[in-house]
Amino acid sequence: MTVSNNLQKLRKYLESRTGKAIGDYNMIEDGDTVLVxxxxxxxxxxxxxxxxxxxxxxxxxxxxxxxxxxxxxPGFPADILPRYFESVGVEFRIVEADTYxxxxxxxxxxxxxxxxxxxLRRGIIYRTAKELGANKIALGHHRDDMVHxxxxxMLFGGKLKAMPPKLVTDDGAHVVIRPLAYCPEADIAxxxxxxxxxxxxxxxxxxxxxxQRQKIRxxxxxxxxxxxxxxxxxxxxxxxxVPSHLADNALFDFAGLTLETPVEEGDIAFDAPxxxxxxxxxxSHIA
Length: 287
Known about the structure:
Blueprint: H1 5-24, E1 33-37, H2 42-57, E2 63-70, H3 80-88, E3 91-96, H4 99-106, H5 114-132, E4 136-138, H6 143-157, E5 166-168, E6 175-177, H7 185-195, H8 211-226, H9 230-238
Parallel strand pairs: 1-2, 1-4, 2-3, 4-6
Antiparallel strand pairs: 5-6
Helix pairs in contact: 1-2, 1-7, 2-7, 6-8, 6-9
């Protein structure tokens, strides 16, 4: 396919952001085997494209194996991903597991199936990584996913917690990485359209998905539209934690605080903010 100058620039930008995230968090090391989870959506196609491009010029050697889980959802076009993987010359594994029927059997009609489906999918991915000798598992979550998860946990779960760029799996056998951590969703969507990836719809199971997450998505889209740069600012805040100015006794010894305790940044409670606020950002509509 012919690639326009704008698409080439966008590709270079996304490759640069992906490479920086990989370097900042030491996501991929020499000799790694990386299982790249591909659902057929814009994010996983972009993830695979970025990792393939970076591998060609990386100073280290690592192996990529693309994986798709065919969950036997009605209407799933099982031929699309194998054909695509072959066209881009990547090693791949298609895993067939009828989790769709199991989820439909266990979850009452009308209820969200995503939680059980996600747990089943995760277990199969772990098992496949073990079978293939992959020590890293790459997921296509991007910057906006991480920001949305932060607000989801804060507003509905009472935790200051998000998606980490890198973590150890539940079974302690693998490291999960999110190389698109620095990439905005809008740029990924634009890249996917320009590359004409054969997108597989994510609603084949008929599930409504996580409605609370959708509320957060709409809230952030509204904020970014009215106050550009808010998502980027929130993500930057996730990288600049000041425990002494929160309220978690496990992270900072508030009970043992004395006049001699060094405190980062000191007391700024009565100081005027040193950043511009274009206006109040309402959150009442997400409740």
